[in-house]
Write a structure and sequence with these properties.
The chain is of the alpha/beta class. The protein is built from 21 helices and 10 strands. Strand 7, helix 19 and strand 8 form a beta-alpha-beta unit. The N terminus is likely disordered. The structure holds adenosine-5'-triphosphate (ATP). The site of adenosine-5'-triphosphate has 13 residues, from helix 14. It holds the Pfam family ABC_tran. GO terms for molecular function: ATP binding.
Length: 657
């Protein structure tokens, strides 16, 4: 076993060494070209013995059967059951062959022998036809099963992806697992079901042939197994080499995919050309593609070597099996009639045995990839379950209906640190926002304004501290109960490739369209004239990659984004993060009027670098390096002569000149 592992180790590390050495130039710019950390996991796989692999089979088979059963119990039973019955037909056909040859080699007149073989011949024809029919039926059942399993697997994947907390997408471990699951893991879960049906088919054939040989000449059974082992060994080794290679390349492929996306999509097409970045991107891409090609060559070379050794040993083993049969014939241990039947059985048995070993190998291989998907599912489920409202003690507010619109929202000593960072983005912020009031967040770039907004919108959970709605810790309540009261006009304008109408009503897409609200949201955001001026009005598609689609200017997209936030808003909390950054003066004034009109009834959190837009806020919170350093209305802060007053003077001066 040690020597096998060592032999494999000699093949694979050579590939790794060459990978990291030759890509040195590219690695300077793209460090992800290095093998990923969980390569160590693949090295464990590398040293697994055939028997360890065989021991894992029952678990993998059980797992595949559970997957298949959950997708369709009826087709699972059909796919497995028909194969098992086909096995009975195989044994019957082989025993009929044995009967026929014994009868034909008997000492009797030719016609008597032919007539005597008639019933066995009829049985052979019947059993062969039945086996073929059952095989077709089993194949049909398997093909019906596959799309059902795929459907279920995909549904679960996207359920997890959309339910996972936002912070998961900032985490590189999650990104790697997601990539591995998407790359092949999900497909492998589906393939594993098919593999297990193939495994059952092959196992049934082998058992059927062994049962027939037990009647014809039991001595040949172990020889049959011995003859198929070398090919099986080679298949297992090849798969493992490919697995180890693939696993080590996930990180590079992720980077490759990203560079390809940067080159081939319209969103980066402008900037790429402004900065003449195409050549550099192509260079990075080429380096990675070359690296992939070299890795492919390496693995193909190793696999071919493995298969050649397997085939060579298999040839010798088969020669040995037939040699033993000839020797038994020569010494009179088996009569000629039995030897003839044995040749037929061995032919079928060898094919079945090789299929079995290949199936074992495929089940194991796909099992490894499927484990990537299961690992991802487990990680995603863990992240979902770790959300405070699920993981913490009993909820602090019971029931399942939406909470009432909050009268007070409080941040109590809230801190937040992004995953993987060693400093807080927000530290010890305490604030109270009364219903009907406007709070403005002000501060330099990177001071933590958007992070506070995201915490308020429930996108992230505070690392410490609490966010209270009417005294209730919001992180311990199901977000479905309070998110309906939160609307956001995000800093990063999302250009949804939908119609203008869907783009505006996305935040309430599950509800019937409210035309009046749709128009008033668009009007208040300064987007109504624009939408009504589109060739197709509200039905205008906003993506030039589809026929009839169009694109918008930066400011027009931002108006649409504001309309989306306003349509969703129902008088709860509206977070507007730099909502006017791309707007012209008229549109900006209109939007700020709209936000001001909320005063007295709805709560607004406004982030803006244009201090003219925040002077009317009931309170202005000034953030610096994640800390709240000043809080109060405009007039008080100007009198206090601190950071805000400084910024105000600076902007007023530039407007005055
Ligand atoms: N997803 C993220 N992962 C890691 N760090 C982040 C992430 N988003 C923001 N940060 C960091 O958190 C800090 C606060 O960022 P934030 O976006 O809240 O600042 P801001 O005050 O809104 O800045 P701006 O005025 O530029 O919009 C910054 O140091 C930023 O680099």
């Amino acid at each position: 076993m040690r020597s096998r592992a060592g032999w494999l180790a000699r093949l694979v590390p050579r590939q790794r060494k060459r990978d990291s050495g030759e890509e040195h130039t590219a690695a300077e710019a793209l460090p992800e070209l290095e093998d990923i950390a969980w390569y160590r996991h693949a090295e464990e796989v590398e040293t697994a013995s055939f028997w360890r692999m065989a021991r894992q089979l029952p678990g993998l088979v059980g797992q595949a059967l559970r997957t298949a059963w959950s997708a369709s119990p009826a087709w699972t039973v059909a796919a497995i059951g028909l194969n098992v019955i086909a096995g009975v037909a195989t044994t019957t056909a082989l025993l009929a062959v044995s009967d026929i040859s014994t009868t034909l080699f008997a000492a009797a007149p030719t016609w008597d022998r032919v007539l005597a073989a008639g019933p066995a011949l009829a049985l052979l024809v019947g059993a062969t036809a039945a086996r073929a029919g059952l095989g077709v039926g089993a194949g049909f059942a398997q093909q019906r099963l596959n799309p059902l399993v795929l459907n279920r697997t995909e549904r679960e994947f996207y359920r997890l992806i959309t339910a996972v907390p936002r912070a998961a997408f900032d985490d590189d471990t999650f990104a790697d697992r997601l990539k591995a699951a998407k790359d092949r893991g999900s497909r492998a879960v589906v393939d594993l079901v098919g593999d297990v049906v193939d495994l059952v088919t092959a196992a049934v054939t082998v058992v059927a042939v062994a049962a027939a040989l037990a009647v014809i000449e039991p001595v040949l059974i172990p020889l049959l197994f011995a003859a198929a082992l070398p090919t099986g060994w080679a298949a297992v080794r090849s798969a493992r080499l490919m697995y180890v290679s693939n696993r080590s390349r996930v990180s590079r492929r992720r980077r490759l995919w990203m560079v390809e996306w940067l080159m081939d999509n319209r969103w980066t097409a402008d900037d790429q050309r402004y900065h003449e970045a195409g050549q550099w991107l192509r260079g990075q891409h080429q380096a990675m593609v070359d690296q992939e090609t070299r890795a492919d060559f390496e693995v193909i070379r190793s696999q071919t070597l493995t298969r050649a050794v397997g085939q060579l040993v298999a040839g010798v083993a088969i020669a040995g099996v037939y040699g033993v049969l000839l020797w038994m014939l020569a010494t009179g241990t088996v009569p000629l009639a039995v030897a003839a039947a044995a040749v037929v059985a061995i032919g079928q048995g060898r094919a079945g045995m090789e299929s079995l070993l290949v199936a074992v190998n495929t089940v194991y291989e796909d099992g490894l990839y499927a484990a990537d998907r299961h690992e991802f599912d487990a990680l995603a489920a863990e992240r979902i379950a770790a959300q405070p409202h699920l993981a913490g003690p009993a909820p602090v507010a019971t029931g399942s209906d939406p909470l009432p619109v909050p009268q007070t929202i409080e941040l109590v000593d809230v801190s937040f640190r992004y995953p993987g960072k060693d400093t807080d983005a927000v530290t010890g912020v305490s604030l109270t926002i009364e219903r009907g009031r406007t709070l403005a967040l002000v501060g330099e770039n990177g001071s933590g304004k958007t992070t506070v907004a995201k915490l308020l919108a429930g996108l992230y959970t505070p690392t410490s501290g609490q966010i209270l709605w009417d005294g209730v810790d919001i992180t311990r309540i199901d977000p479905a109960r309070w998110r309906c009261h939160v609307a956001v006009i995000a800093q990063q304008v999302q250009q949804w490739p939908f119609t203008a109408e869907l783009s505006v009503r996305l935040g309430r897409s599950g509800e019937p369209v409210d035309r009046e609200r749709l128009e008033s949201a668009a009007r208040d955001a300064g987007a109504l004239d624009m939408i009504e001026g589109f060739e197709h009005g509200w039905s205008q598609l906003l993506d030039t990659q589809f026929r009839g689609g169009t694109d918008l200017s930066g400011g027009q997209w931002q108006r649409l984004s504001s309309a989306r936030g306003l349509y969703r808003d129902r008088g709860g909390l509206l977070v507007a993060d730099e909502p006017s950054a791309a707007l012209d003066a008229r549109a900006e004034a209109l939007l700020f009027d709209t936000l001001r009109a909320r005063a007295g009834s709805a709560t607004t959190v406004l982030i803006s670098h244009r201090l003219q837009g925040v002077v009317h806020a009931d309170a202005i919170a000034v953030l610096d390096e994640g800390k709240l350093i000043e809080l109060g209305p405009h007039r008080d802060l100007v009198v206090a002569d601190g950071v805000y007053a400084d910024l105000w003077r600076l902007q007023s001066k530039s407007y005055a000149t």
